[in-house]
Amino acid sequence: MHLVLPGWTERAVAATGLAQNAASILYVHASPDAVPASGPPPRPGPRILDAVALGETALVAAKRDPDGRPSLDLSAAADPGGGVPAARRNG
Fold first, then answer.
1. What is 23-34 written as a DSSP string?
2. What are the strands of the beta sheet with 24-29, ordered from one edge?
3. For residues 64 and 89, is the Cβ–Cβ distance under 8 A?
4. Region class of 27: left (phi > 0), else alpha (psi between -120 and 50), else beta
5. Partner of 1 at 20 to 30 A CA spacing, among 27, 49, 65, 80?
6. Would you give the DSSP letter of residue 41?
7. Residue 89: pLDDT above 80?
8. Domain segments of the chain: what residues?
């Protein structure tokens, strides 16, 4: 089972363990600012991915790093020259 959920539900889903049997969870965030700097501590369970919906224009997604941190970086610092979204790769 794969789940697609609003990003704001992440803490509640982690606390209840409702998605423990899922193969993966895609959290969709409404804006780049809504992507958390860190997620709940990693534990055995589903693979976590984050996506940002950029209106009706695009959907940008990336999987979490091994420490459970979101790897999407859509800030101006990621591309000081032009506003192109970037995915940060750790390791």
1. SEEEEEESSGGG
2. 2-6, 24-29, 47-54, 58-63
3. no
4. beta
5. 65
6. P
7. no
8. 2-70
For residue 31, give every residue at least 6 positions away whose Cβ sits within 8 Å of its Cβ, in sequence order, or none.
52
- Residue 87 CA to residue 17 CA, distance in Å, equals 28
Residues, the chain, total? 91
| Model confidence pLDDT, tens digit, residues 15-46 | 888 788 889 999 998 877 777 766 665 666 78
Instruction: Enter the DSSP assignment of 55.
Output: T
- For 31-63, give one letter per residue: b (16+ CB within 10 A) or e: ebeebeeebeeeeeebebbbbbbeeeeeebebe
Report the distance separating Cα 2 and Cα 74, nearest Å. 25
3-state secondary structure of 77: helix
Asked if residue 3 lies in contact with residue 26, where contact means CB atoms within 8 angstroms, the answer is yes
